[in-house]
Each structure stands twice: as structure tokens, then as C-alpha cells.
Amino acid sequence: MCLNGNVINFDAKEKYNAKIRTLGDVVTEAHKYHNKEYDDYIIDGLELEKWVYLKGSKRIERVSKTGHKYVFSEGSMSFPDSLELPGRTMLTSESTVNRSSHVIFDENLDKYRKITEVEAELLQMFPPNWTNTGMSSRQRYFMMGNALVTGIVSKLELKLRNIVIEEERNKISRCNPN
Asked: If residue 8 lies in a helix (H) or strand (E), which one and from where to where?
């Protein structure tokens, strides 16, 4: 931690006893707030094939501008995202056709789909429809991909505040030995 230009090191241990919130929990909660059809989120046909390719492992020989041959490779990602695990880190490109966007298999629809805007908000621990202010769907996803997970910040805040207060007290006591 950096305080007044001074770097402070300290050990920390995880302390988490609560139930882990899964992507499935988020999908279930968000369903209460979803007031339109899921047609815009469905992935099928050629689009589904593209998603499968993007999420899969690759090993492709390429040639650089200077003629140097190299191998581009990347490992596979879960497809679809598991509803039994927490959601992955969200990027500003969420919901676009790329390997980092979340794709789930919706058992109620019996189809693959992208996560909804409300599901994205809940994954980032924002209230449902937080970004439903008139901005476009794309902007809503971008905002959530650009956001800090609010629950993490609120949990860190109290501990960080106490560290800052204690450091200030120590600084004052060093200046005033009486």
C-alpha cells in the first residue's frame, strides 16, 4: 500500500467463510428483472460455430511483417461457462463475439446465449438495472466491463481506512514523543 508517498508492506491472509456466488446464482437472480424476450442473446447456427472456435485451443503458424515465422497459440476456455462456478473477469468487450465474453447454456430456453445486461451488472455486484439510464445495450456492457467489482471495494475500504488511521497515529506519535 502507498500512503503519502511511502510504500507499506504487510502480510495478508484470505478470510472468506460465506457461500461462493456462482454464475448460476446470478442468472437465477437476474431472471426476476429481465422483462423482454431473450432473442437478442441467443447464439445458434454459424454464430455458435464461431463461438466454439473462439473458445477452443489454437495453434496457428503465422508470418510477421518482416517474414519471421512464429506459432500463435492459446489454450481452450470453458464453453459454455459453468453455472456452478463464479463468473470470470468481465472486459469492456463483454457480449461481443470474442473468446472473453460469457456464454451460458440456458436450460429454460434449451439454447446457448450471451449474458444479459442485468446479469453483467449483478456479476460486478451492482444493483439490477444500474446502467439502464437510456444508454445503449453495448454501452451498458462496456460500463460493467470497465467497473470495479463494488463488493470487493466496499470490503477493502474498512480495512484500508483502519491501516491509514493507524499509520497517521504512528506518524503523529513519532513527531510528538510525549
From this structure: none
